[in-house]
Amino acid sequence: MKRLLPILCFLLLTATASADRVKVRLFSNNTIDFINISFDLGTYNLVSGDTAVIESEVGNDKSVELTPQGRNVHVSINGYDYGSHPSVSFLATDTACILCLNPRNLKQRTYEGNLTVSVNKNGKLLLINDVEFETYIAGVVQSEIYGNETDIFRVQAIISRTWAMKNINKHASEGYNFCDQVHCQAYLNRCVRPDIMLGTMMSSGMTIVDSTGNLIETPFHANSGGQTANSEDVWRAAVPYLRSVSDTFSYHMRQSEWVKVINEDKWLKYFSSKHKLNTSDDSIRNELLTFSQSTRKVRICGVPLTRIRTDFQLRSTFFSVLYDSTSHRVTLSGHGFGHGVGLSQEGTIRMVGLGIAYDSIIRHYYTGAHILYDEEHPRTYVENYIHKIAQIIEEDKSSSTRTISKKDDWLGRLFRIRDREEREETYDPRSDDLDQDWLYDW
User: Fold this and answer.
1) Same domain? 301 vs 327
2) Which of 182, 221, 348, 412 is 20 to 30 Å from 92 by CA-CA measure?
3) Within a 10 A sphere around the Cβ of 406, how many other Cβ atoms?
């Protein structure tokens, strides 16, 4: 096993989770019967089961194809047959290693860390990414929110880290911690943007707790539409820190407004057949056709709005009804996107743009909660890491016209900066790469 660079040791020392590493099921919503795996950075040892080495130092000159064969995984490397195995693992030989995953008929993804592939009970490939906790969080942040301001990513990282720590064993009975979909948190790629990693690292060691010091649940949604929802209005339990709050910051954003047009007969028949309402009754019919929400409500004619949202596939429950007697159509004029409980992501984006501090944003959406900082967190490593990432971001700004290649990935560049410093050299990103820079023994 090759050496780990000190600058990345924080990845192994961020003990804010119950484990330094987590296991995440990839492509959990897909059926995988073939995958091609290639390598962008670093090398991997390909191992059968727990110990038997199939091939060592597999790098960017290799292409590995995996298919299910009964209960085993069949392996082919550069077209050569390497047999079938109960499971295969790609074990990174260093911290800066990147895998490219190409399942059949699906978009390519890239991930850091290790990868184990086995065959599930349905005879399809099961892919588990074994990755450092903070690397996972950065990938979640990239998958869950958009923007260009560091504090946007810092806020998302804090709530995503809190959720992960509180739900660390969500899929433990299945052999992993999380899936890669919104059932847990979206984790659709490794973090490829240094600004997202910077925001994640600036939040390192931070979680959200309630008044008793316990980790809170941190639900979030795309846009509240102007008012968040109480937890009991969407789910069963009333939670003290998940209270409805006014949220004008969510106005005039991408997901602020929506419209859905429904035939009058279909709208009324839904309530009469599914919810047994007498829609010929004038008072009921009138409420169904003139329902309005200036502030959030929970029901219409006794029917939960959450049920209507699901059945009509609406973006939110925050809508009003407009009826056109000429066309006999019902228009649902809606606000926001998502369940509405907890943090509004687009509200967060607006607040950051207005200069509101990240901790104030969190307190706005999670009533009475506060940020807990782990005093034993390895601050020296984190600050060094933050400094290096900031340096890379500045380099990108000063050379925006430069053609970007795979070896310009921020993770590889971070290692290059550190390696040159260790050789007491100065890294000038404007100069041409020297051959020996790429002969470094990873």
Assistant:
1) yes
2) 182
3) 11
